[in-house]
């Protein structure tokens, strides 16, 4: 019982240290306003009517406020980690991990127990391959940890003795199931002694005197090369610390989060996929700030693009641009004000022209009157 409790304490301390590694600490400055009591010296000059001018000094106590800075240590998740409901900081893999893998560090995946990393030869991406401690028999493949399943063209044999499962036997449907022969591979028969394979009938037929002579005339020399194994000693490669040896190969323990993710699955709205497999915001869009906290990469329009991009009233998702109606309303109101100002200005201009014309006519009339008076004797 003591051993179990000791083991629990050790595992708990290890888990606590691992969790603390995901936290970062920083100093935060908090500025508050606090009431304070101050005093000041007031100098009062004597009256100018006094002969002996002596200044008076007295101390005044008054209430005031001051800004006070305090510092505290803030503990939060490090960059690349997200705090979950349990209060722990878990790493973020922005492009996800393949099946049977978990996110163990920011944008780093690792296969779970019973699986080992493997690389896809077509696109170079990683996937997790199951591990079977005992090699699977011929015709079977490892589909899960320590689980072998017969492949296509093979059937499962009943277990022998205390075995859990039997081997895999090839299936032959030709020649009535290899009648008078044995199925040695998928759809391949080996005829028994006294029989030969008839290509026309696709079955094992009994040898006759006539068929023996035909066989002797058309016999071809079939030889099978025996595979010889080298007696040289096999030296296992030495793998670095970040790799594990599997089937004579050094496999990566951790790998990047879905290296070519967007090349296969694509990107989100208003995003383009780069050749490196990373999604990037399209022109006129910037990353959402909330995406850094949630781990979901999304893009939004820039402010100037929203204001100036009035030629696109809707975006790619047929959503109305939130700036379209306000800008159109402001523009319409501005044009209406210009129209009213123009009408009022034109009316005033016409009135001023009319008043100026009337004044010129009065001046001309009075001038003529003076000229007539000058000629009167």
UniProtKB/TrEMBL annotation:
Molecular function via GO: phosphatidylserine binding
Domain EGF-like, residue spans: 92-129, 131-169, 171-205, 261-300
Keyword line: Membrane, Signal, Transmembrane, Transmembrane helix
BP GO annotations: engulfment of apoptotic cell
SMART domains: EGF
Domain of life the protein comes from: Eukaryota
KW Signal (keyword) present: yes
Signal peptide: 1-18
A single GO cellular-component term on record: plasma membrane
InterPro entries recorded: EGF, EGF-like_domain
Keyword Signal appears in the UniProt entry: yes
Parts of the chain that traverse the membrane: 323-344
Name of the protein in question: EGF-like domain-containing protein
Taxon lineage: Eukaryota, Metazoa, Ecdysozoa, Arthropoda, Hexapoda
